[in-house]
């Protein structure tokens, strides 16, 4: 049983990657039926939100219904705050009756504590989401996180609401972590901080270099010592006349003669 589940999950994932715009893929090998499954997304009847009140209550999941979720071209699950993101919801109907997809909704929570709700994302309602028995279908879901989100990891909980024979059901197609990043604008808080820090470091380095250059130049300007004849001030000679220093100087001069 486990091996069969792995086989259908692999097949469904391949279908989602190969035909993200397909509504219903019937489990037949006929080429005409396969060509009819590549319908435009508009044929799904996406009518936005607040069109049908399916309630905020919790419905049970129907037996024989399996779901899968993929982030197209975004395997690392990076979501930019304030920008539109897309995911694909695959649903497989192994029941005996046809089901009708009503809406897809999602919410963002604090990691490891889903009681702390951060944002309820816009619900996407469908009016042409029929999935016959023994069939599978893919539904796109577009959502936008608030610009106030700080970068980091958050938990995304996605639910698909459907009805079978007028009875409402729901299945959770994703309950995991997403990484929220800032918009790739030119100026962000982090970029401004880094630029300011860089300018301050450059200014400090310039002041340090200027101080070093000044200290080296002062050392090079030290007065040179003159070697040779020395002139003596006459007033100094008169002040030293009669002292031992004057007598020694006169004796030295007599010896040189």
Tell me briefly what this model is.
This protein has 257 residues and is α+β, with helices and mostly antiparallel strands. It is 29% helix and 34% strand.
Question: How would you describe this structure to a colleague?
Answer:
The chain is α+β, with helices and mostly antiparallel strands and about 260 residues long. Helices cover about 30% and strands about 35% of the residues. The chain contains five helices and twelve strands. Strands 2, 4, 6, 7, 8, 9, 11 and 12 form an eight-stranded mixed sheet that branches. Strands 1-10-5-3 form a four-stranded antiparallel sheet, covered by helices on one side. Strand 11 (about 150-165) and strand 12 form a beta hairpin. The protein is rod-shaped.
Question: Which helices and strands, and how do they pair?
Answer:
Elements (H helix, E strand, L loop, with lengths): L1 H17 L5 E3 L4 H6 L9 E3 L16 E6 L7 E3 L3 E10 L5 E12 L2 E8 L3 E3 L3 E2 L3 E10 L7 E13 L2 E15 L7 H32 L13 H7 L3 H13 L1
Pfam family, one: TRAP_alpha
Subcellular location: Endoplasmic reticulum membrane
Protein name: Translocon-associated protein subunit alpha
Alpha carbon gap, first and last residue: 127 Å
**Uncertain residue ranges:** 1-42, 49-53
Q: Bin the strand percentage.
A: 25-35%
The helix/strand order is: HEHEEEEEEEEEEEHHH
Given helix and strand content, the structural type is alpha+beta
Compute the average pLDDT: 74
Cα radius of gyration in angstroms = 42 Å
Largest sheet: 8 strands, mixed
By DSSP (H or I, 4+ residues per run), the number of helices equals 5
What general outline do the C-alpha atoms trace?
rod-shaped
Number of strands: 12
Helix percent band: 25-40%
Family: Belongs to the TRAP-alpha family.
Signal peptide: 1-27
Organism: Acacia crassicarpa
Protein name: Translocon-associated protein subunit alpha
């Amino acid at each position: 049983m486990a091996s069969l589940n792995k086989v259908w999950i692999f097949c469904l994932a391949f279908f989602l990657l190969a035909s993200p715009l397909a509504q219903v893929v019937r489990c037949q090998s006929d080429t005409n039926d396969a060509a009819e499954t590549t319908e435009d997304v508009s044929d799904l009847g996406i009518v936005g939100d607040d069109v049908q009140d399916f309630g905020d209550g919790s419905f049970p999941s129907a037996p024989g219904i399996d779901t899968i979720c993929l982030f197209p071209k975004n395997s690392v699950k990076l979501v930019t705050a304030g920008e539109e993101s897309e995911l694909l919801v695959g649903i497989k109907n192994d029941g005996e009756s046809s089901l009708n997809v009503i809406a897809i909704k999602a919410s963002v929570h604090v990691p490891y504590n889903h009681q702390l709700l951060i944002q309820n994302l816009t619900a996407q309602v469908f009016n042409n989401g029929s999935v016959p028995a023994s069939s599978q279908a893919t539904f796109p879901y577009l959502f936008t996180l608030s610009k106030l989100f700080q970068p980091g990891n958050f938990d995304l909980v996605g639910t698909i609401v459907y009805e079978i024979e007028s009875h409402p059901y729901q299945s959770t197609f994703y309950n995991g972590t997403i990484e929220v990043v800032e918009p790739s604008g030119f100026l962000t808080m982090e970029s401004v901080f880094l630029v300011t820090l860089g300018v301050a470091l450059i200014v400090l380095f310039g002041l340090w270099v200027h101080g070093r250059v000044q200290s080296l130049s002062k050392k090079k300007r030290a007065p040179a010592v003159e070697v040779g004849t020395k002139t003596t001030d006459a007033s100094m000679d008169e002040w030293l006349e009669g002292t031992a220093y004057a007598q020694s100087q006169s004796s030295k001069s007599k010896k040189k003669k």
